[in-house]
Design a protein that fits this description.
There is one protein chain. With 187 residues, the chain is mainly alpha-helical. It is rod-shaped and about 270 Å long.
Amino acid sequence: GYLKDIQELNDTHHTRHSEWEADRHSVEECQIEIHNKESQMKNRETEKTKLDQEVTRLRLLREKQAKEAEQKRDQEEQQRQQEELMRQQEEQQRQQEEQRIQQEEQRRQQEEQQRQQEEQRIQQEAHQRQQEEQRRQQEEQQRYQDEQRRQQEEQQRQQDEQRRQQEEQQRQLEEQQRQEQAQAEAQ
């Protein structure tokens, strides 16, 4: 009976030891599993942190790019407005220059018209002077002709008077001769 008890104790001890070994082995496996799970969770946490950081970086990058794009659009719009303003100023200057040229041309035409009017007035005055000179010459010529005709008439009158005197002398001479002839016949 004693040996049997010893044997049972040994068997029980062996069995318990085997169970303990199995439990210890199982606990170790559980610890390894837990460690693995913790490592996986840590890795996932690390990946999540990295992903969050990447998302944040991308979001900041996108915001920065959007801001830069907006700044670029603003700069381009400002530059476009400046160019438009410069274009308007140039157009205004061009119009002012064109208006100045037109005014200058108009002033030149007015001066040319005044010059032509002045020249026409001078020509009219010269023509009037010529007409007056011509009329004066005609009057002078008429006076000369009148004077010449008067002289001719005077000369004709003198000739007529001289002829009348000659005829009177001839008549007196004939009368004297006739009287002398009558006296001679009477004697």
